[in-house]
Specification:
Distance between the termini: 23 Å
Strand order of the largest sheet: 1-3-4-5-2
Structural class: alpha+beta
Oligomer: single chain
Helix content: 10-25%
Strand content: 35-45%
Number of strands: 5
Largest sheet: 5 strands, antiparallel
């Protein structure tokens, strides 16, 4: 990820056998959920409260994730509106035992700040 997004490590986890698809690779839906969680860490921090995912754009899978891979989610805000944020997300894995790190997927998530009732709210001033 580029430094101009303010991208940072937002979440790390280990891919487990229960998260595999019929081919034995990690299920794409599991990986997308991890990306959503990582991106929400960044969005919630910026919004200073609740956020909701409203869109996922341009998701691209480059390589499969294997059981035992250390999955690292990097995220950074690339655009802000009055109530919404666009968060760029990149997933890198560290494959053991080699310790080789590489990018496996990326996407753009859009979040909106919401109040306790789930209604849109204005992002706080920075």
């Amino acid at each position: 990820m580029t430094d101009d997004t303010g991208a940072r490590l937002a979440l790390q986890t280990i891919a487990m056998p229960a998260d595999t698809n019929a081919n034995g690779d990690i299920f794409g839906g599991w990986l997308m959920a991890q990306m959503d969680l990582g991106a929400s860490v960044i969005a919630r921090t910026r919004a200073r409260g609740r956020v909701a995912t409203v869109a996922v754009e341009a998701m691209t899978f480059y390589k499969p994730v294997h059981v035992g891979d250390l999955v690292s989610i990097y995220a950074g805000i690339t655009k802000e509106g009055t109530t919404s944020m666009r968060v760029e997300v990149e997933v890198r894995v560290t494959r053991q035992p080699e310790g080789i790190e590489f990018k496996v997927t990326e996407a753009h998530f859009v979040f909106v700040a919401v109040d306790k009732s789930g209604d849109k709210r204005v992002l706080p001033q920075t």
